[in-house]
Q: What sequence folds into this?
């Protein structure tokens, strides 16, 4: 049997569990509201959750998990094509949403349950198996539409307990963040994490340096963010003594989802005396490594494997690299209770993702330092872009661009960007060279079909697409085009 939230099922207390803006719930109130959701969804296979950054989303996901049902969090800004794919692929029987929120046409065929954060349901009893799916989270690959990673309850429990050890995370911790609730970072770590510990979380609704400063000076102890958020903090620090003081007094500052640039890490350290702790994970694996709270945070390292995680670096041919020399680069492969089970409806992709001995191929390239710490140096696939901490496949954007009538050929690359890490660039051969499509038009087109964070931030018009003898686009040639 797997219990994710003892603090909600064993005599929940009147201590605050969740706060979104000026609305909050104690453990006792959350147990009652989640119990009401659980009573509505129990016995179903999968339910979709319209994952706005609100109290209702947290209540919906927690209620669903307590009932032993799998939740499919939906990005409320997802475009019609992406949403249609996710709903068609995961086939939820119902969508949970905050009352009064208008849902798009792609969800029109689904039964809807309005989530009442003040409901008084029965205190839930958790009785599910650890291998049962907890979440289906959609994640981009290099080509085609996003794949649904099936994350079992075991993985949620294992990763949160491993982080508890690494970060000395306790029920006294108050977390603050402004992360979206339809990905692992904001949902599993940032929402389910504090609830499993019996601590609390304050969600900013949307990220701002003002919100971070306010909450950290008013009782919050930990901050989670993607590197873009830490970049914005680093930029704001010189003119914001309140932010400096708030960060200096925090117990733990954690960055993840993409590499934190050394420059931002060092600027924050210089201004506040605090070093940001980096951890490394994936939707498919949850968390694999972290700098420990009692260890030494250095810029550029994502720390050591978490308890229970087997991690190895391998050569191209699969030979393990044993050297801890800080130089020999290999692909990171991981195995452990933190792993996903499969890609929903994609046995081909699932099989390709694992080695014969059950390690997951991350596609991330790294070296290991003499003390065992992992330093990520790159990625195998150039067609995966990390922008603002979101993983985005070049192929899905190229497909969307090709559906625009003014586009004859399209290639998408990622370029370095100080704020976003990488920015999406669309290389276009126009259907009519006399009237090429503009950036705004293509950005709106992609935002409407896929999601706003997948929109190109720059468009470059080409006469011809550089291709090799096989007809394949030579993306490396594009940078100098
Ligand atoms: C802009 N917008 C548009 C358009 N252009 N909407 C429609 N059509 C357009 N053409 C809207 C956007 O939706 C947004 O709306 C606003 O304008 C600003 O957009 P943008 O510039 O993209 O956002 P930003 O403010 O720069 O966001 C930066 C951010 C964000 C806050 C850092 O990128 C973010 O939240 N990143 C987190 C990603 C994350 O959680 N990744 C975890 C996955 P509005 O103003 O309404 O918002 S990785 C993971 O889970 C693994 C396990 C791990 O390791 O963590
Ligand atoms: P996602 O599929 O959105 O879950 O993104 C997972 C990917 O994000 C990983 O495969 C890494 O490439 C990247 N990532 C996550 N955390 C870090 C980190 N701390 N440093 C560098 N890359 C990271």
A:
């Amino acid at each position: 049997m797997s219990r994710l939230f003892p603090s909600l099922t064993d005599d929940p207390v009147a201590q605050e569990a969740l706060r979104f803006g000026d609305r909050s719930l104690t453990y006792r109130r959350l147990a009652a509201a989640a119990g009401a959701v659980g009573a509505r969804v129990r016995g179903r296979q999968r339910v979709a959750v319209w994952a706005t950054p609100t109290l209702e989303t947290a209540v919906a996901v927690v209620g669903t998990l307590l009932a032993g049902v799998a939740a499919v969090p939906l990005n409320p800004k997802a475009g019609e094509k992406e949403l249609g794919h996710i709903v068609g692929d995961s086939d939820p029987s119902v969508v949970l949403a905050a009352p009064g929120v208008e849902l798009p046409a792609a969800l029109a065929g689904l039964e809807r349950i309005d989530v009442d954060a003040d409901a008084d349901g029965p205190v839930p009893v958790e009785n599910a198996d650890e291998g049962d799916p907890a979440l289906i989270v959609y994640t981009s690959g290099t080509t085609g539409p996003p794949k649904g990673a099936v994350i079992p309850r075991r993985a949620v429990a294992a990763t949160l307990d491993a982080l508890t050890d690494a970060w000395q995370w306790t029920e006294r911790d108050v977390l603050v963040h402004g992360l979206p609730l339809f990905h692992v970072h904001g949902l599993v770590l940032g929402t389910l994490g504090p609830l499993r510990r019996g601590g609390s979380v304050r969600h900013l609704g949307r990220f701002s340096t003002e919100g971070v400063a306010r909450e950290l000076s008013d009782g919050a102890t930990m901050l989670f963010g993607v590197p873009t958020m830490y970049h914005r903090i680093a930029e704001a620090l010189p003119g914001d003594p309140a932010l400096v003081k708030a960060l200096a007094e925090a117990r733990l500052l954690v960055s993840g989802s993409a590499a934190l640039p050394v420059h931002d890490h060092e600027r924050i350290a210089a201004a506040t005396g605090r070093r940001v702790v980096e951890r490394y994970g994936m939707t498919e694996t949850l968390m694999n490594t972290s700098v420990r709270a009692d260890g030494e945070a250095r810029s550029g390292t994502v720390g050591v494997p978490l308890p229970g995680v087997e991690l190895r670096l391998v050569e191209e041919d699969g030979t393990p690299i044993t050297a801890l020399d800080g130089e020999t680069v290999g692909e990171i492969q991981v195995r452990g209770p933190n792993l996903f089970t499969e890609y929903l409806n994609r046995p081909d992709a699932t099989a390709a993702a694992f080695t014969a001995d059950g390690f997951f191929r991350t596609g991330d390239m790294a070296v290991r330092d003499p003390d065992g710490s992992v330093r990520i140096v790159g990625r195998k696939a150039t067609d995966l872009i990390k922008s603002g901490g979101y993983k985005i496949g070049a192929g899905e954007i190229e497909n969307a661009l090709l559906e625009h009538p003014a586009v004859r050929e399209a290639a998408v690359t990622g370029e370095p960007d100080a704020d976003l890490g990488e920015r999406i660039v669309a290389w276009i051969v126009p259907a009519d060279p006399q009237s090429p499509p503009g950036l705004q038009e293509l950005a709106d087109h992609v935002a409407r079909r896929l999601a706003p964070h997948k929109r190109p931030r720059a468009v470059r018009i080409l006469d011809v697409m550089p291709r090799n003898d096989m007809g394949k686009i030579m993306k490396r040639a594009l940078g100098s085009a």
User: Anything to note?
Assistant: DSSP finds 14 helices and 26 strands in the chain.
